[in-house]
Amino acid sequence: MERQTPYPLVLDGDYSPHLSRWLWLVKWLLVIPHVIVLFFLWIAFLVMSVVAFFTILVTGRYPRAIFDFNVGVLRWTWRVGYYSYNALGTDSYPPFSLADDPNYPARLSMEHPQSLSRGLVLVKWWLLVLPHYLITGVFTGAAFAGYSQMSDSNTWAYGSGLIGLLVCIAGIILLFAGFYPRGLFDLIMGLNRWVFRVSTYAALMSDQYPPLRLDLGGHDVPSSADAHTMPGPDPLPAS
To answer: Which of 4, 120, 179, 229 to pair with 31, CA 20 to 30 A apart?
Structure first.
């Protein structure tokens, strides 16, 4: 079966069945330097997105320098998330870089659009993407946090969401069995891919509406050989 039309964002992660049994327990501590840097990078991302908004509104084009920077922030975010609690996909520490690193097992890239609709820029980030916000809110826990806040007036309410739950299950399996089930990895990758597609659309980086589908697997655009090959059974943990 042929792959459906790909989205401009490509999000990949190499499957590693055998990872450290215990390292995931302390990754929250190891990623603190990245979290601090990403805090400031995301502030810049939001400021640059506002500048891009007005530029698109006037010229119909997304400034290339801003686009490359914002893609870099998303790429950095994905590498840290893949290492830590968005996937637990690798034990390789992520680099401090906005640039693409072909040697790192998690990668993100996106095509720069030649032109964008000046009309859509007014509505796509809040109105058109609303159905996706509801879905990805369940994936990330934002929906649970919002419901809790409305119910209990708790500003600090937080929910881990479906991704967090599945990653926790993966961590427990790693701890006791010493391997990462392939089917669980593919599902977690699909959920993350959906979230990042919505993020780029909401950030005005594409006019192509994110598909309402779950594209499973580590590789966003598989080779022709991969497309016709079903994944085999999970490897047994090394003795």
So the answer is: 179
Report the distance separating Cα 210 and Cα 135, nearest Å.
12
For residue 152, what pLDDT band results from cuts at 50, 70 and 90? low
Domain of residue 100: give its range.
Answer: 9-220
Cβ 112 vs Cβ 39: under 8 Å: no
What DSSP assignment string belongs to 27-93?
HHHHTHHHHHHHHHHHHHHHHHHHHHHHHHHHHS---HHHHHHHHHHHHHHHHHHHHTTTT---SSP
Q: Tell me how many domains the chain contains.
A: 1
On whether residue 141 sits in a domain, the answer given is yes
Is residue 229, in this structure, part of any structural domain at all? no
In a domain, 1, yes or no: no
| CA angle 214–217–219, rounded 5-degree value | 110
Nearest to 72 by CA among 52, 42, 50, 47: 42
Q: What is the CA radius of gyration of the chain?
A: 18
Cβ pair 191, 162 in contact under 8 A: yes
Query: Residue 228 falls within a domain, yes or no?
Result: no
Question: In terms of pLDDT, which residue wins out, 239 or 39?
Answer: 39
* The pLDDT value given to residue 220: 87
Local structure of residue 194 (DSSP, 8 states) = H
